[in-house]
Design brief:
Chain A is α/β, with parallel strands linked by helices and 911 residues long. Chain A contains 33 helices and 33 strands. In chain A, α16 packs across α17 and α24 packs antiparallel against α25. Chain B is elongated, with a radius of gyration of 37 Å. Classes of the chains: A alpha/beta (911), B alpha+beta (369). β7 of chain A pairs antiparallel with β6 of chain B, so a sheet runs across the interface.
Chain lengths: 911, 369
């Protein structure tokens, strides 16, 4: 190729220049025509120029009078035209059309010099470089330039138009910029460097396969403009370059056909989602559409949501206020209800606010009367959802039950006509809400009649229980086992100093309740409503079992209970059970549920408990499942879970042993005697053994007598453990025959629910085997270590327990000699008594020893009214016998007289 | 989709019905055209029986092999392509409403478009007598059962893709979409009446921004593509300053690219000596690397005088090369001296050329003989 000197010398810059776009853009030409066309006689028409002076030919141009005429012309490929036009821009004598395209060359080169070119695939599938991305300044520049385009620069008439039309200036400028840009990165070196002619060689390359790569599709959004009259302006976003946003008008002016097609398909979908947009599809260029007020209302109602569903966002004008919101105000009028029964109603009103600022009644009236989706409020145009206007008109809503209002106040959300609406609590409701929010607000003195010092967290629990019960709201205390729920409840009874308290608990816990009440609140009447000939007391504590309560609910309902307590309340987790139904029939001023299991893990279980303590709070079960359980448990909806937590938080207090506020207060080791009643079978068997063997003892002397005494003691202990142990049954039924086993089940349920680990000691390998069998049947993993366990197996068991693989470790006391380190255990159960505290301590210390970081609870099971009970009492009192037992073990008993022995083993009722 | 001949697997065995209004219009044209209903019925049976082979559609024709009991026949159905003016009018009708193209892109033929085109004198769908049939079978009916079978299957094909109708009329989807772009024209008289508005000021030259990053794709080195953008930016900057565009030979272009983008030197297999020569003085520097020439006498005389006046060491001269030990000056057509230095028996361009041979020689380190 030669230099352009020839072209310049021919004076082409004096000619009018018109741009002829081609595909690919680099094949576009600039045609020069007019009076100053150089004399090109030496060239044959249509011949390729030999010196870059251009190809002579002809051109049909439109004339100022609207006619067309064929004129002589010289064509230059755009690459060659660039220097000519550049110089035309600088030359004072240049034709305005040539100077115009010269200015366009400068704009194009400036874009290229900034690296603003990108590869594209043209309509004809050719590889092309195009200018872009263009920023707003670039777009303005292109528009300004297009505005300055003289007619001569675009004089080629559009095909098929009569009267004669010329091309629009802006699309033509854009094609020209693309044409210039397409020439710039190419050349022989580019082909070599890239190793491919695609996007590198000036020769056209067909690359339909690169279309998807070059052009990654578009997203469409609507920009709403205007306030008096709304328009939806279509904007198209490049997915490849998210910063690239152009109005549809712009896109249709450019060369990006693929983007237009993509945008069009999206628009058609958008028109289906939001029918007012159908009017866009009737336009040649779907650039914008006027929205009627009714369209805007539809857009506000759900149009925008449906549009979002097809990927089209809606952008509202920035100066349009859009934070008008509605919430319901609860408890505005009236006093706090004395209790939260279903008939206690509270007022509900709509409140509309701009931001956080409630509208005045005056403004509400203006809103109510508004006929347009925009209203002038506080000197600003405000977008008004038609739904909000309706709320402004119908401000008062149907009153709701006080308990529902409380629930709404706690969650911050109310459901009105199936819609979730933010809630503001005022008046009494806000008082209650605020009280509930503060756990430690009202200090409570520990009751003087309580014979114990409450730990700090117990005192906090008492305050909380007091507040909840005095507000007429129930509560569920779900502290870990061992934190003293029983004593806290006793303190509450004393503090309330109201009427009688009914405690419903599993039979195995009756004894424990009675002992603790007698110990910590001496003088307070405590009766068991259990067994034959039972009478309901109307004072102090009345203890009953779930079974008895179920049978006698109607009798119990006759008493005006001040407090009803459900201990181990997970027993009524099945709301359709007879027990749960019966429990609901017993009225009380306040209800408290106690449980040591983490009830919050099962929402239905929690519902059952809270629906008893605080009826109505969580709504009916089906509604509860739909509103809370399903979104939280099945859908894992975080927001709903948070709202639910806010709702139940005041009603559920659960402290863990490991909580920072609790752990320091716990002693490292707590030992508790756990009295259990014998079952009827055990009691009968116990008495039979006493009768039979006492008779034998009376008839024997010396060694024979001693042997029989030992036989008696052993037999009684076995009966207390389990009848099956004593009777040596080969495949016994274990369920429901032993008070100890039932209590063990209770303890294990709680311990395992806490993810705890427990050591269960018994003197008898046979009993350990029975327990193991029983646990297996209940699906609880356990392992048994006894004297006969070989050392390697022993070590493996210890490892498994320490690694948390097995939560329950059964050990015979004899086997649990030295060398065992079982620090994972946080509970130790002594299923039967060795009657030698030193031995028991040694066993307990398996768990509680150096390296232990958790507090350890020791539970000693004691059969009530039996020899176990009596010896335990003696040990506590450290009487003479105790020291002799300490010195001699069971042998000490053999020296007792028949009368003493009879007194020791006699079965007594109660304690 | 831009290819002008498209093949489609035919529909297998099964009774189908034309679902769309345009498919039914097509079938109607077949029925109206036919003089005899019998081959039409047979044709429908053949179509339902799946006796039609793969169908090819191209401008003006649909063809397929149709299997009959005795033989397989090659059948073609013809429909006239639009003329250029017809296409112009039809595309104008498409372009009048954005929704037309949107519907077509959704594979729906808007009835309104066909009506608008008809108003402009262009019938998109065939009417009576518009379909022509050819078949290798000996039957004399028009259409024969084979052509009818093909027509039925074609109507099902059209149901699923109305673009095929446009292809039959002569244009691919790509071409229609491109052509249907609304050209917002301006009345010529109005454009001329606007006169010659003043040109806006030229934009300031700005620096090359961050190089674009392209999504990697097989067969195309996108990193080199980015460097081509940088190279184009440099060329554009030069053009903006000089308003001229150097025309380089391929070799010159290669060496130029290797010089400006050293990372590409290996890819364009540029010789380091060439790069050094280009760096020294562009195309002239490169030409002096291997070529020699005999400068005209007056130049030589001037050179000798300058050499002597500057008291330079005597040089061995050959054509335009003056050698002093391991240094050499080459005289260029631009009357400048280009310093070279010997390395491993090869002459390397070193330093900048100068009209004054003494200055040029001083670029080379002085070495005593």
């Amino acid at each position: 190729m030669s230099s352009l000197g020839g072209a310049l010398n021919t004076g082409l810059e004096r000619c009018a220049a018109v741009f002829e776009a081609a595909d690919p853009p680099r094949l576009s030409t600039v045609a020069f025509y007019g009076d100053h066309l150089p004399d090109l006689d030496g060239l044959e028409r249509g011949d390729q120029s030999s010196d870059g002076a251009g190809v002579p030919g002809s051109l049909v141009v439109a004339l100022p009078d609207g006619s067309k005429r064929e004129v002589a012309a010289v064509r230059l490929p755009v690459a060659d035209a660039v220097p000519v036009l550049s110089q035309a821009r600088r030359a004072g004598h240049a034709h305005p059309a040539a100077a115009f395209w010269g200015a366009a060359v400068v704009v194009a080169l400036q874009l290229v010099a900034r690296g603003r070119v990108r590869p594209a695939v043209t309509d004809g599938d050719f590889d092309a470089w195009r200018v872009g991305p263009l920023d707003p300044a670039d777009l303005r520049r292109v528009r300004d330039l297009a505005d300055a385009m003289p007619a001569h620069a675009r004089a080629i008439p559009l095909a098929g138009r009569d009267p004669v039309e010329l091309p629009g200036a802006e699309p033509l400028v854009r094609s020209f910029l693309d044409a210039v840009a397409d020439t710039m990165p190419r050349g022989a070196a580019a082909v070599h460097a890239l190793g491919s002619p695609v996007f590198a060689s000036p020769a056209p390359q067909r690359v339909p396969h690169l279309r998807t790569w070059a052009d990654q599709g578009v997203r469409v959004s609507l920009r709403i403009e205007g306030l008096e009259e709304f328009r939806a302006v279509v904007q198209v976003h490049s997915l490849a370059d998210p910063s690239l946003v152009v109005d549809a008008a712009e896109l249709w002016a450019g060369a990006d056909r693929r983007a237009r097609s993509d945008a069009m398909v999206v628009l058609r979908r958008a028109a289906r989602a939001f029918p007012p947009l159908e009017r866009l599809l009737d336009l040649p260029v779907p650039d914008e559409v006027v929205l009627l007020d009714s369209d805007v209302e539809e857009l506000l109602r759900d149009g925008a949501v449906r549009l979002a569903g097809v990927g089209v966002d809606v952008h509202w004008p920035k100066d349009l206020v859009r934070d008008l919101s509605a919430r319901v105000v609860l408890g505005d009028r009236g006093d706090r209800p004395a209790f939260f029964g279903p008939d206690q109603l509270t007022t509900v009103n709509w409140q509309l606010a701009l931001g956080d600022d409630p509208l005045t009644p005056d403004e509400l009236d203006r809103l109510a009367e508004a006929h347009r989706p925009v209203v002038r409020l506080r000197d600003r145009w405000t977008l008004v959802d038609p739904d909000l206007a309706r709320k402004a008109r119908e401000r008062d809503l149907k009153p709701v039950a006080a308990i529902d209002a409380l629930g709404a106040a706690l969650t911050g959300v109310a459901e009105i006509d199936g819609e979730q609406v933010p809630v503001a609590a005022t008046g009494w409701l806000d008082d209650v809400r605020a009280k509930l929010a503060l756990l430690d607000s009202e200090p409570v003195e520990p009751p003087a009649a309580l014979h114990a010092t409450l730990r700090d967290y117990q005192l906090r629990g008492l305050r909380w229980l007091d507040r909840m019960t005095s507000l007429g709201l129930g509560a569920c205390l779900a502290d870990d086992m061992g934190l003293g729920k029983t004593i806290t409840l006793i303190a509450l009874h004393l503090h309330r100093a109201g009427g009688p308290t009914l405690v419903v608990c599993p039979a195995s816990l009756l004894g424990n309740w009675q002992r603790e009440i007698e110990k910590f609140a001496p003088g307070v009447p405590v009766t068991r409503y259990h067994g034959s000939g039972r009478e309901v007391a109307h004072e102090g504590f009345v203890l009953t079992t779930y079974g008895t309560m179920r049978v006698d609910a109607d009798r119990l309902a006759e008493v005006e209970w001040d407090l009803a307590v459900a201990d181990e309340a997970q027993h009524v987790k099945n709301p359709s059970s007879d027990t749960a139904k019966a429990l609901r029939r017993i009225p009380a001023t306040a209800r408290v549920a106690l449980t040591g299991t983490p009830v919050e893990n099962s929402l239905t279980e929690l519902w059952a408990i809270l629906d008893w303590t605080t009826p109505g709070l969580l709504g009916g079960l089906p509604a509860f499942k739909a509103r809370w359980a399903k979104p939280i448990e099945a859908d894992r909806d975080r927001a709903t879970a948070d709202r639910f937590a806010a709702l139940i938080r005041p009603f559920l207090l659960r402290r863990r042993k490991s909580d920072p506020g609790v752990a320091p207060e716990l002693p490292p080791k707590t030992e508790t005697d756990r009295p259990v009643a014998l079952t009827r079978e055990q009691a009968a068997l116990y008495e039979a053994v006493v009768r039979e063997l006492m008779a034998e003892i009376a008839e024997a002397d010396g060694i024979a007598r001693r042997g029989r005494v030992v036989k008696l003691l052993t037999g009684l202990k076995q009966v207390c453990n389990h009848p099956a142990q004593y009777l040596k049954e080969s495949s016994p039924r274990l369920e429901g025959r032993s008070g100890k086993l039932e209590l063990l089940d209770e303890l294990l349920d709680t311990i395992l629910a806490e993810d705890g680990a427990v050591l269960v000691f018994t003197q008898y390998v046979s009993m350990a085997r029975l327990i193991g069998k029983h646990l297996t049947a209940r699906g609880v993993d356990s392992q048994l270590l006894h004297g006969g366990t070989p050392v390697p197996a022993r070590e493996e068991m210890v490892r498994r327990f320490q690694d948390g693989e097995v939560p329950v470790f059964l050990l015979s006391l004899k086997a649990a000699g030295t060398g065992l380190n079982l620090t994972r255990a946080d509970h130790v159960v002594h299923y039967d008594r060795w009657w030698n505290p030193a031995v028991e301590d040694q066993a307990t210390d398996r768990a509680y020893r150096i390296g232990q970081t958790k507090p350890v609870q020791v539970h000693r099971l004691v059969a009530e009214g039996t020899i176990e009970d009596r010896i335990a009492a003696m040990l506590r009192a450290k009487r003479d016998l105790a020291s002799s037992v300490l010195a001699h073990g069971e042998a000490a008993f053999t020296e007792l007289s028949d009368a003493e022995l009879a007194d020791l083993v006699e079965l007594r009722s109660g304690s | 989709m831009s290819t002008r001949v498209q093949g489609f697997p035919a529909f297998g065995k099964g009774v189908r019905h034309t679902r769309t209004w345009w498919g039914r219009t097509w079938s109607q044209a077949l029925e109206d055209t036919s003089l005899d209903q019998k081959p039409l019925r047979q044709g429908r049976k053949y179509a339902n029986a799946g006796l039609v082979g793969p169908i090819s559609v191209s401008p003006g024709r649909i063809s397929a092999a149709v299997h009959d009991t005795d033989d397989t026949h090659q059948t073609t159905v013809r429909l006239a392509e639009f003329t250029e003016p017809q296409w112009t009018r039809f595309l104008a009708a498409v372009a009048a409403k954005a929704g037309h193209l949107a519907a077509l892109l959704d594979r729906e033929m808007p009835r309104e478009l066909a009506e608008a085109a008809a108003d402009a004198g262009v019938d998109l769908l065939p009417g009576i007598g518009d379909l022509d049939f050819e078949c290798t079978c000996p039957d004399w009916e028009l259409p024969c059962r084979h052509a009818a079978a093909l027509c039925h299957q074609a109507s099902w094909l059209l149901d699923t893709d109305p673009w095929l109708l446009l292809l039959l009329r002569g244009r691919t989807q790509e071409e229609v979409v491109a052509g249907a772009r609304p050209t917002t024209g301006v009345l010529a008289t109005t454009a001329y009446a606007a006169g010659t508005p003043p040109l806006p000021p030229d934009p300031p030259v700005e620096d090359l921004g961050a190089l674009p990053e392209f999504t990697p794709i097989e067969d195309l080195d996108v990193e080199v593509l980015s460097l081509l953008v940088a190279d184009a930016a440099a060329k554009a900057r030069d053009l903006l300053h000089t308003a001229t565009r150097p025309h380089l030979t391929d070799r010159e272009d290669l060496v130029r690219l290797a010089t400006t983008h050293p990372t590409l030197a290996d890819r364009v297999s540029a010789d380091p000596r060439e790069v050094a020569a280009w760096r020294q003085a562009g195309p002239i520097g490169l030409s002096l690397l291997d070529d020699t020439w005999t400068p005209p006498k007056p130049d030589l005389n001037r050179a000798r005088t300058a050499w002597h006046d500057a008291e330079l060491p005597p040089a061995t001269t050959w054509r335009n090369r003056w050698t002093v030990h391991t240094g050499q000056l080459r005289y260029g057509p631009d009357h400048r001296w280009y310093p070279y230095r010997k390395h491993d028996n090869t002459w390397w361009p070193t330093g900048t050329p100068n009209r004054d041979p003494a200055a040029a020689l001083s670029e080379l380190p002085t070495e005593q003989p």
